[in-house]
Automatic annotation (TrEMBL):
It is an enzyme of class 3 (hydrolase). This is 3-hydroxyisobutyryl-CoA hydrolase. It comes from Glycine soja (Wild soybean). The lineage of its organism: Eukaryota, Viridiplantae, Streptophyta, Embryophyta, Tracheophyta. InterPro entries: ClpP/crotonase-like_dom_sf (IPR029045), ECH_dom (IPR045004), HIBYL-CoA-H (IPR032259). It comes from the Eukaryota. It catalyses: 3-hydroxy-2-methylpropanoyl-CoA + H2O = 3-hydroxy-2-methylpropanoate + CoA + H(+).
Length: 332
């Protein structure tokens, strides 16, 4: 999540129509393309228009600058805290957009470099083709600042190998481009230096034929080989600890594992979790666990209710208190 708001008159989403190809660029580079009401409205307008356009066959989604999308703009939520349901419309619209993207009738390709977090990653994960690079950073850090795992990620996380989803939801742990391809969050890894040429080739393909699009992407793709220190190589420990029934048991299990040789990485995990809102962590854990037996629409409905109750402070005021602390720190 990014802390700034958009310039009012800024064109926060840029759409291009090139014969049978449509290119949409999230255009808030100074705010890491964070999700604002204007961005949601403009992106939805383009996607709705193109889905109905018989000439449109292929839609490419990318971000301007050094990020794909940093997730929801926290300042939008914070600024609306004193007005009842000030963010209801944008939250509902974005959740609808998350579902719409997952059922979109045209072939979609996400070209993802830099940060792709939270709701921003929801613009990548459901697509038929999601291309990442060595500069891609994926995370769902919402619980760490008093929020919850939203925008469909109680569904997506619950379907990751073992209990990796619980780990990502509770720790906000970051995965690299190679790692998210390895676990199926993204479909292809392409070196950053080849992304511009890949985009040109996709545009020149001028077709939404899935096999043809896949063939072009695979020409540029590289085999994924995980680094020795990858968190994915810790899957057995993650499964052991994050399979426990409660947050307290998960922390206790992590503390026990931290004493064992070679498990120094757990110290940072524990420090982060103990600094986070216990309420938010418990909500995230339960939500991901429930997601295993829910469809994507069911997860989105559940997450929408959670989001609105958190914004209304029906559950807790933890998120607003975290933003207050961050804002104070920025002023010092």
């Amino acid at each position: 999540m990014a802390p700034s708001s958009a310039v009012p008159d800024e064109q926060v989403v840029v759409g291009e129509e090139i014969e049978h190809v449509r290119v949409v660029t999230l255009n808030r580079p100074r705010q890491l393309n964070a999700i604002s009401p204007e961005l949601v409205s403009q992106l939805a307008t383009y996607l709705e228009k193109w889905e109905k356009d018989e000439k449109a066959e292929l839609v490419i989604i990318k971000g301007a600058g050094r990020a794909f999308c940093a997730g929801g703009d926290l300042r939008v939520f914070y600024d609306g805290r004193k007005i009842k349901d000030a963010c209801l419309e944008v939250v509902y619209r974005f959740y609808w957009l998350c579902y719409h993207i997952s059922t979109y009738k045209k072939t979609q390709v996400a070209l993802v470099h830099g940060i792709s977090m939270g709701g921003g990653a929801a613009l990548m994960v459901p697509l038929k083709f999601s291309v990442v690079t060595e500069k891609t950073v994926f995370a769902t850090p919402e619980a760490s600042f008093g929020f919850h795992t939203d925008c469909g990620f109680s569904y997506y996380h619950s379907r990751l190998p073992g209990y990796l989803g619980e780990y990502l939801a509770l720790t906000g742990g970051r995965l690299s481009g190679k790692e998210i391809v390895a676990v199926g969050v993204a479909t292809h890894f392409v070196p950053y230096e080849k992304i511009v040429e890949l985009e040109k080739r996709l545009i020149s393909l001028n077709s939404g034929d899935e096999n043809a699009v896949r063939s072009v992407i695979e020409e540029f793709s590289s085999e994924v080989k995980l680094d020795e220190e990858s968190i994915l190589n810790k899957q057995s420990i993650i499964n052991e600890c994050f399979s426990k029934d409660s947050l307290e048991e998960i922390i206790k299990s992590l503390e026990a594992e931290a004493y064992k040789e070679g498990n120094g990485w757990i110290d940072a995990v524990l420090k982060g979790m103990k600094r986070s809102s216990p309420t938010a962590l418990k909500i995230a854990l339960r939500s991901v666990r429930e997601g295993r037996n829910q469809t994507l629409p069911e997860c989105l409905k559940k997450e929408f209710r959670l989001t609105m109750n958190i914004l209304r402070t029906t559950i807790s005021k933890d998120m607003y208190e975290v933003i207050d602390v961050v804002s104070l720190a920025e002023q010092i």
